[in-house]
Amino acid sequence: QKPVDVIIQLSPGASKYAGWALGAGMVKIAAAQSSVRVALNLDHATTLEQVKQALDNNFTAVLFDGSSLPIEENMRLTRQVVGMCHAQGVPVEAELGKIPKIEDYFSADEIAHLRNLTAPEAVRIIRDKAGKQVEALMAKPEDVERFVSETGCDFLAAAFGSIHGIWADIWPIRVDRLVAIQERTRLPLVSHGSSGILMTPEDARKKGIALAPGEGTLLDAIQTGGVTKVNVATILSISFIEGFVDAYNAKPSEKDFRKLGGPAREKVKEKTKEYMRLFAGKIS
User: Fold this and answer.
1) Which of 115, 183, 214, 247 sits most deeply, having the most CB atoms within 10 A of its CB?
2) pLDDT tens string 127-140
3) Would you identify the CATH topology of the domain 6-233?
């Protein structure tokens, strides 16, 4: 329960859903009432207009994601974003390589099936269908120095084998690629798609997931010293949904959704604390 500084992220999708001013406003009001420092980060902006909206609404950091573009175009647009943001004292995170989504490889029905399998079986199927492409999409160490130099970004989200949207911490990442990237830059590195990454070597052992040479866990990535920001979203969303459903199933006569939201928030809180303990190196 000790106070810990936090980064709250709003994506363009969330900002469109709630409205840019309302979404940012809720975070800023909560931050003003808190005893900890709160950063408001725009997550995965893909257009200059989205960046402008974030700056107009006093976001304190921006991630520009040009990873779907050719590297030259990615660098050109990222450089523009850096110019816009640095003029207002706002740091920029940029993305190199591409971190795919699990939906790029599996349909909704297939994902539902995978979620019902044991962790080793699900990992085997994901490896067979997606593994080679995920590896091909990882950031190339030889691109790192030029990308950082030409864009002037402050943080680098370099792809090292994670996948967005995996529903549980079962997927190994390529620590060998992460280390090779670290050797090319002193910038703080960022882990994306972290909900799906195995948390610790002990978790891998307990779940029966064998790590191939060069693979590792989220703890390994943090302990290399390069990863200083870890994005966690999917598992928190799933925790909320599960908490809400459990509360409804326990009391199906309830008509006040706020009373169902309480247990859902508690489940998110406990999962968040679990990750915070991991980030602080306090693992059992």
Assistant:
1) 247
2) 999 999 999 999 99
3) TIM Barrel (3.20.20)
